[in-house]
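Notes for week 9. Today we move from apo structures to complexes. The key idea is that a small molecule is not decoration. When we ask for a structure prediction with 2-acetamido-2-deoxy-beta-D-glucopyranose present, the ligand SMILES becomes part of the input, just like the chain. The input block below holds both the sequence and the ligand string. Read it once before you look at the output, and try to guess where the molecule might sit.
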Amino acid sequence: MEVGILFMLSLSTLFLSGSHSATFTITNNCPFTIWPATLTGGGGSQSSSTGFELSSKASNTLNIPSPWSGRFWARSQCSTDATGKFVCATGDCGSGQIPCNGAGGTPPVSLVELTLASNNGQDFYDVSLVDGFNLPVSITPQGGSGDCKASSCPNDVNKVCPPNFAVDGSDGGVIGCKSACLALNQPEYCCTGSYASPDKCPPNTYSMIFKNQCPQAYSYAYDDKSSTFTCSGGANYSITFCP
Ligand SMILES: *[C@@H]1O[C@H](CO)[C@@H](O)[C@H](O)[C@H]1NC(C)=O
């Protein structure tokens, strides 16, 4: 048994010494408090923090070991209800707590999607409005080599959201904007059924509303490849809400 434990310890030492971790700086540039969250995809272990509170103008750093694949988003207008459950008007993950513990955000929600490669290989990242929009967001690599361009959705899509796609906050203002797929659930907007390929699912009037506000972001499932960005060499990343 001792031999087995020793063997596992030396294996994990080997593994750790060969791995890399990326530092993420999450900044809230919105004029109100937000609650950022992370979700690890593909069965990987969750990041050290799956949700936290971030006051206006504050930053927080997270270390995420690579390889990793997952998403970042932020929740808004959160509070603790009468039963002690933590709930948010946008991006709520249903955990009832500030950490999301492996649950995703309820759309409409703006997403930063990211894959960190192993061995300082090529990372992939994008901003996605395929699940709709709640807050403007950007991702900017720091260090690294290759393309390493920032991708940003800098504009407030809520301001131009068609009324039938809008999610209203308690004060009556628009706090989220559903994508056409989410709002209408039709194959031609979701690129499903006989529309399930890029040539059969072109941009539409609704996806163009998102694209016009945020040209670098994915506006629907088969948006053009210019929305995916890459960076190599073990970059760190800063993610800013309301950039
Ligand atoms: C990433 O940040 C860490 C410190 O948090 C630093 O040691 C490392 O050099 C940075 N990597 C790059 C590529 O800038």
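The pocket of 2-acetamido-2-deoxy-beta-D-glucopyranose is lined by residues 23, 142-144, 234-236 (CB under 6 Å).
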